[in-house]
UniProtKB/TrEMBL annotation:
Residues annotated as domain Response regulatory: 30-154
Name of the featured protein: histidine kinase
Reactions listed under catalytic activity: ATP + protein L-histidine = ADP + protein N-phospho-L-histidine
Entry GO MF terms: phosphorelay sensor kinase activity
InterPro entries referenced in this protein's UniProt entry, alphabetically: CheY-like_superfamily, DUF3369, HATPase_C_sf, HATPase_dom, His_kinase_dom, HisK_dim/P_dom, HisK_dim/P_sf, Sensor_HK_Regulatory
């Protein structure tokens, strides 16, 4: 068995003197060893003495108990790796120490490796699952070579975590710094604040020296680079050319960066090219004694890329200020023009208000006129209708030839009464004053009642009925539904020829009652059906037929008030079929 594979905690063997390579000169890696056996500390220190990683040797920081380890961790929280025994002053002292490191100290960076001589006391699966540790080793299997391999893996992981945290903190500083920059509106204040915030992104060293410079045109038309902001020893260099403000070597580096558009990094300085899309370049120079690391290079470049947007915003803001000043005169002229237009609008408004008042007055007069017509016409019409009925009864025996004339009289009375009802109902619909008076209604009986006067007035029409499928009762406004039926029957009579049939059907569709009025008249062109229920609309088939164009509009509005609808199917030259759909229950 090779020397590196010998058990670390096996039986003692004779020491063999051998030539050892010289120890690395770098800072040692501190390894916390927590074990109640002093021999473990001694053997670990002896074996690690012969190893190094990244040019740095190992240093054992020993603790003989978990309590002693807590004291060490309080003083040195940056220890990268800990080798912990499980059983020490108590059977679970090592596991309790793990909880203390992760929970109480909130130390997530340290890599914790458990090694125990009694695996049965802390089974590997339970420990790995229940505790935030990074490796688990039995002392009997941890040879010198395996110890070195385990430590190197842990150190690499710790180093990566530290790098990630360092970059995270750098990004937070970038966000905090750039956020305040976006609030500035002055170019000079922006550049000065930029230089100030840049010193917080990376460590500027004990004596920070940062400057910003831009190219400007001289009176002779040539451009030269001048310092526009600075801190540290460059504070008094603002306004000077770079040849006067910095060393010749640094001035040459600045000019090279301007020409190449690339960042330059030297031993004690870095030159950053701060590019924007529309407003040229700014050069930022950071100087310090220590060289800038690769991580700091990335942070600085990220910072510059982020604040480039803010730089453009400041330039645009200054351009907007200039543009705003040029617009002020135009605004003054436009304001005077608007004042003139406003006076004209006021006059137009006054004229429109007077016209509206006249229209409202006319509408009120119309409403009063309709009320007067309804009151003054209904009584004479009722008297005429009653007289016509009495004369018809006598004419059946004394003069049958007078029945036709009396029928014409009664039909005219009904048309006038229906016209008055339609206009009054339309007026109430337009003013939202129509209120339903629902009650239980026998729809079949209502239909027969409405049709009866038409049968008397138009003996030349045949009225067919199919009403057996209607519900016995429906909760509707009997007067308004009667008006709907009267309007539809009137249209069927007006637009059909003598001797043709008018069919009234009814059936139940779920919770809805459907009433159909079909005729064999002129029919309606398909292109006019979408506008058929518009107020005052009269189609081409209404030519030569008296009417106002409000009847079907009133039918639709009454159906909607009941929560129903109205539809029509029509074929020119064959006839039309209107369907009124009403809910049976409110």
């Amino acid at each position: 068995m090779a020397w590196d594979d010998e058990p670390l905690f096996g039986n003692d063997a004779d020491d063999t003197a051998a030539a050892r390579p010289p120890r690395p000169s770098g800072d040692p890696w501190p390894i916390l060893v927590v074990d109640d056996d002093p021999q473990v500390h001694a053997m670990t220190a002896v074996l690690l003495r012969d190893f190094d990683f990244d040019g740095r040797p190992f240093e054992v920081v020993g603790a003989l108990s978990a309590a002693e380890a807590r004291i060490i961790l309080a003083e040195r929280p940056d220890l990268p790796v800990a080798l912990l025994d499980v059983v020490m002053e108590t059977e679970d002292a090592g596991l309790r120490l793990v909880r203390y490191i992760r929970d109480d100290l909130a130390n997530r960076r340290m890599r914790i490796i458990l090694r125990t001589g009694q695996p049965g006391q802390a089974p590997e699966r339970d420990v790995i699952v229940g505790y935030d540790i990074n490796d688990y080793k039995a002392k009997s299997e941890l040879t010198a070579q395996r110890l070195f391999t385990t430590l190197v893996s842990a150190l690499r992981a710790w180093r990566d975590i530290v790098t990630i945290e360092r970059n995270r903190l750098g990004l937070e500083r970038i966000l905090n710094a750039s956020a305040s920059l976006f609030e500035l509106r002055s170019m000079r204040a922006f550049v000065e604040r930029l230089v100030e915030q840049l010193s917080h992104v990376v460590d500027p060293g004990s004596v920070p020296a940062i400057l910003a410079c831009r190219q400007t045109e001289r009176g002779d038309g040539l451009s030269h680079t001048v310092v526009v902001a600075g801190i540290g020893r460059h504070t008094r260099a603002v306004g000077l050319s770079i040849a006067e403000a910095v060393s010749p070597a640094l001035a040459s580096a600045i000019e090279t960066a301007y020409q190449s558009h690339n960042n330059l990094y030297g031993g004690g300085h870095c030159v950053l090219v701060f590019r924007t899309r529309e407003h040229g370049k700014t050069i930022l120079v950071l100087e310090r004694a220590e060289p800038f690391t690769a991580d700091e290079h990335r942070l600085l470049e990220l910072f510059c890329n982020r604040v480039a947007i803010g730089f453009d915003n400041v330039c645009l803001y200054e351009e907007l200020i200039t543009l705003n000043r040029s617009l002020e005169h135009r605004v003054e002229a436009r304001t005077a023009e608007l004042a003139t237009n406003q006076r004209a609008l006021i006059l137009a408004k006054e004229r429109a208000e007077r016209a509206l008042e006249r229209e409202l007055g006319a509408k009120e007069n119309q409403s009063q006129f309709l009320g007067m017509v309804s009151h003054e016409f209904r009584t004479p019409l009722a008297i005429i209708d009653s007289a016509a009925q009495l004369l018809a009864m006598r004419a059946e025996q004394a003069g049958p030839d007078m029945l036709e004339r009396l029928s014409v009289i009664r039909g005219s009375v009904q048309r006038l009464t229906g016209l008055i009802d339609s206009h009054l109902t339309d007026e109430r619909l337009q003013s939202n004053a129509l209120v339903l008076e629902r009650g239980p209604v026998d729809l079949a009986a209502l239909i027969l009642t409405v049709v009866n006067p038409f049968q008397v007035a138009y003996p030349d029409r045949r009225f067919d009925f199919d009403l057996g499928a209607l519900p016995e009762r429906a909760d509707v406004d009997a007067h308004l539904v009667g008006l709907v039926l009267a309007n539809l029957i009137t249209n069927a009579v007006k637009y059909s020829n003598s001797g043709s049939a008018i069919t009234l059907r009814g059936h139940t569709d779920g919770a809805m009652a459907v009433i159909e009025v079909a005729d064999q008249g002129r029919g309606i062109p398909k292109c006019e059906i979408p506008r058929l229920f518009e107020r005052f609309f009269r189609g081409t088939s209404a030519v030569g037929v008296p009417g106002t164009g409000i009847g079907l509009h009133t039918v639709q509005q009454i159906a909607h008030l009941h929560g129903g609808a109205v539809a029509v199917d029509s074929t020119p030259g064959i006839g039309s079929n209107f369907r009124v759909i009403l809910p049976v229950m409110a």
